[in-house]
Amino acid sequence: MPELMTRKRLFRWECLFLLICVVDSTPPEYPIKCSSKRSNCTITNSYGAFPDRSVCRAAEVVYPTTEEELVAVVAQATTEKRKMKVATRYSHSIPKLVCPDGQDGLLISTKYLNRTVKIDASTMTMSVESGATLRQVIDEAAKTGLALPYAPYWWGLTVGGLLATGAHGSSLWGKGSSVHEYVLELRIVTPAGPKEGYAKVRTLGNSHPDLRAAKVSLGVLGVISQVTLRLQPIFKRSISYLVASDTDLEDQAISFGNQHEFADITWYPSQRKAVYRIDDRVSSNASGNGLYNFIGFRSTSSLVLAMIRSLEETEESTSNADGKCRNSRLTTSTLTTGAFGLTNDGTTFKDYPVVGYHNRLQASGACLDGLEDARITVCPWDPRVKGQFFHQTTISIGLSNVKNFIQDVQKLIELEPKAMCGLELYNGILMRYVKASSAYLGKQEDAMDFDITYYRSTDPMTPRLYEDIIEEVEQLALFKYGGLPHWGKNRNLAFDGVIRKYENARAFLRVKELYDPLGLFSSEWTDQVLGLKGGVSIVKEGCALEGLCICSQDIHCAPKKGYFCRPGKVYNDARVCTRVSSHK
Ligand SMILES: Cc1cc2nc3c(=O)[nH]c(=O)nc-3n(C[C@H](O)[C@H](O)[C@H](O)COP(=O)(O)OP(=O)(O)OC[C@H]3O[C@@H](n4cnc5c(N)ncnc54)[C@H](O)[C@@H]3O)c2cc1C
Ligand SMILES: *[C@@H]1O[C@H](CO)[C@@H](O)[C@H](O)[C@H]1NC(C)=O
Ligand SMILES: *[C@@H]1O[C@H](CO)[C@@H](O)[C@H](O)[C@H]1NC(C)=O
Ligand SMILES: *[C@@H]1O[C@H](CO)[C@@H](O)[C@H](O)[C@H]1NC(C)=O
């Protein structure tokens, strides 16, 4: 009974968590820490943990404020044959893209390289330095009556970082939802020979062939200093969320993307529900001043975060699937009732459709704001407090395979109905449209991107509830359906052999060889991902639990805890860590 009471109270807390938006908050921690002013540093990502949980070191960090300073920095490091990596204000990528090898690496931060260089209303173009955040681009463009048509949903990304990893929003219209499709010109600083002073600025215009390499580069070609984007006149959108059963999702998934310009779908497989975002451009005289302030990106009380995390940890350790399912239904209903953070006028939600200007609807990130040192509220994943800690599996599957993939996931749910309540706690599977790209490392065909977030234990050796089912979904997407992992998310196994999925990989590598022949901007991780050096798998005890490997032996799972390496239930070629009850 007392336990029941606590649980009830926690549920109420969770409701609060989802509804409260506190103004006083702590901005995310700066990802670079140095023992003396700018030397002997470590760098991490915004979650405070890379997939292998290693700590990345760099000998030094520099903060160029102009392109000239940038050239000087790259020239100096090139003469010293020093490894370099570009670091951004928040460092949002999950994989170890930002780590320079060895102990002597140099981090080049774009924190102060964030000016808007030029906005031209007549040509509808905007030039920014690469450290400018998405929020800045959206805000500045809007002031001139312009808009970036498609973008990721999160304000905190920088232009350099989101291009490097191929970040996108959701659309099958026009050139699609990836920001790099709207790059008109890009300036990149690369190493050079002595005759050119060891560094040079390369200007890649729209028709320059190397732009196909540079617009999605994983950061291995050099430092992008400036980017010119093609914008559109600002417009209004009309958004409605429609909650429906997922029984015909496999058929709807494709047609829906053709029906609505900004369509996306959030899928809750265990609840057998899908939420369709009906989202289109409307005439700019349509009335409404709607705002999107996504609930999951708001500042959240650290007390509440700790309680929610504790509850989830308890449910995990007691294998309480029913508890997770109850909780996920509550989370989903709270989110849908709250219109996911949409309001008709900036303060209250009355009804759909929500109509408003694109710049107020396309992205959000309220938790980025805040007072330093007021440890009251934070972004929900802030590693300084006990809060969300998760894996993210984000894979795009060619449209022709989407139907079969969805059906396979539904078969898994038929076998294990409660298996996906855990990821529904993190707002289900976000499904977004992306189009084939001319970028060498961009999408190979029109695709649907499946974004799955789920519990990660603080202990790397602890398996999670329905570990096997989520691993099977991951392997279905990657191997049976040949999906492409998002460069800035995912666990190591997603990148094993990934480069073979890119038809123009060699063309990319030729540009890399030309721009940075010594590989100063490359690291062990990028060499592995690009197929230049071994694989990305780390094979050791328990490695499959963290996605560092695909299990091939029981020891890669957690045999002492009853988890053994077994074939998948729907996809026989999958190898997943399955809880075998006779060993309980
Ligand atoms: C809350 C949240 C929401 C997200 N939402 C989306 C989304 O809606 N859609 C989506 O596609 N992704 C999304 N992402 C993932 C995100 O797109 C990637 O993680 C993104 O690359 C991170 O950008 P960043 O500016 O933090 O770059 P970082 O992670 O710091 O850097 C990424 C890579 O780019 C390189 N790099 C950065 N700047 C430069 C430069 N100037 N020149 C050369 N190389 C450079 C770095 O060296 C590194 O290799 C989200 C991430 C978070 C945390
Ligand atoms: C570098 O920093 C670490 C702590 O992060 C410290 O232990 C070490 O002594 C420092 N080394 C130097 C040379 O300052
Ligand atoms: C650029 O970044 C600095 C440091 O984060 C910040 O203080 C400044 O406001 C930013 N400039 C713009 C135009 O956003
Ligand atoms: C919006 O303007 C168009 C002409 O530009 C007009 O035809 C239409 O009726 C207007 N709609 C509203 C809702 O005022």
UniProtKB/TrEMBL annotation:
Instruction: Report whether DNA repair shows up as a keyword of the record.
Output: no
Q: What is this protein called?
A: L-gulonolactone oxidase
Q: Which family does it belong to?
A: Belongs to the oxygen-dependent FAD-linked oxidoreductase family.
Name the InterPro entries on file.
Answer: ALO_C (IPR007173), FAD-bd_PCMH (IPR016166), FAD-bd_PCMH-like_sf (IPR036318), FAD-bd_PCMH_sub1 (IPR016167), FAD-bd_PCMH_sub2 (IPR016169), FAD-linked_Oxidoreductases_BP (IPR050432), GULLO2-like_C (IPR055154), GULO_Plant (IPR010030)
> What EC number(s) does this enzyme carry?
1.1.3.8
**Which species does the entry assign this protein to?**
Tetracentron sinense (Spur-leaf)
- Top-level taxon in the UniProt lineage: Eukaryota
The signal peptide, as residue positions, is 1-25
The reaction(s) this protein catalyses: L-gulono-1,4-lactone + O2 = L-ascorbate + H2O2 + H(+)
Q: In which pathway does it act?
A: Cofactor biosynthesis; L-ascorbate biosynthesis
Q: Where is the FAD-binding PCMH-type domain?
A: 54-234
Needed cofactors: FAD
The keyword Secreted is annotated on this UniProt entry: no
User: Per the UniProt entry, what are the Gene Ontology biological process annotations, in alphabetical order?
Assistant: L-ascorbic acid biosynthetic process
Query: What SUPFAM superfamilies does the annotation carry?
Result: FAD-binding/transporter-associated domain-like
Instruction: Report the GO molecular function annotations.
Output: D-arabinono-1,4-lactone oxidase activity; FAD binding; L-gulonolactone oxidase activity
Q: Which GO terms describe its cellular component?
A: membrane
What are the protein's UniProt keywords? Ascorbate biosynthesis, Oxidoreductase, Signal
